[in-house]
Amino acid sequence: MKEKIGFSLNGYLAALVLLVLQLLSVISLVSAADQPNAPIASLVFIILVGVCWPGLFIVQPNQAKVMTFFGSYVGTVKHSGLRWTIPLFVRRNISLRIRNFESGQLKVNDNHGNPIEIAAVVVWAVEDTAEAVFEVDDYESYVSIQSEAALRNMATTYPYDLHEGDAVALRSHPQEVSESLKTEIQQRLDKAGVHVLEARISHLAYAPEIASAMLQRQQASAIVAARGKIVEGAVGMVEAALAKLSEKEIVDLDEERKAAMVSNLLVVLCGEHNTQPVINAGSLY
Predict the structure, then answer these.
(1) What domain count does the chain have?
(2) Sorted alphabetically, which keywords does the UniProt record give (predicted)?
């Protein structure tokens, strides 16, 4: 079922016309009081005009009225302000405003089987009022349940952290993960006439039972990476030092002395603590 424009007229114009008809019917009833059948006709006309007054209704900004007639959908009115339609139409109010939904913290397993805690914020709005009202029983509940289901499914397709062979991770690629989550939620909510404007992860952490172990793993990875950078820089500095000594012919070192010098420089450059130099006052041999 798709949304269609419902029948409605300008409420101010309709109220003016009804007011004029009401006054004319009253005047006609008073002026024809002495005639035998005229009062009955005027009274019927007054009743008909009075029945039309309930057709007036107000549509607030960014809201809509979904109208049905004896169980059949007849259209939606989105024009804000005072409107008038057929009084027999049953009107149901529905909001078109942008809304937020924040899921609870869900405990799921990531792509590597590690238990994690994850939550998301979904920004959404009703786009098709007919589908939102008639295709699902409660579109607000539908949004919350399907968003959490999509979040669970998305979390199982990515690892928490990048490892060998992984291209995208939950922690390191928030933009790609958000786009994937938005796409999956939108696919689930299309049937309810809901448009997803944004979906982002609001909470992400390892489950408490493995949090300490994973923290040690992250710290170890950081230490290994830092050490790798230090060693790479130290080797470059040693290479530059040997090249400068050879270029300027300051000292002629054989292979054994070069090895000793490289060893000492690497100890100095890669050590965590300051070294204590030992001054050789005699010969190297």
Answers:
(1) 3
(2) Membrane, Transmembrane, Transmembrane helix
In a domain, 46, yes or no: yes
pTM above 0.85, yes or no: no
The backbone region for 283, taken as left when phi is positive above 0, alpha when psi lies in -120 to 50, beta otherwise, is beta
pLDDT for residue 237 is more than 70: yes
For residue 188, give both structure tokens: 């689930």
Token pair in block for residue 193: 């006439």
pLDDT tens for each residue of 200-228: 999 998 887 765 666 666 666 666 666 67
What is the signed CA dihedral for 225, 227, 230, 232, rounded to 10 degrees? -70
Q: CB neighbours (10 Å) of residue 89? A: 20
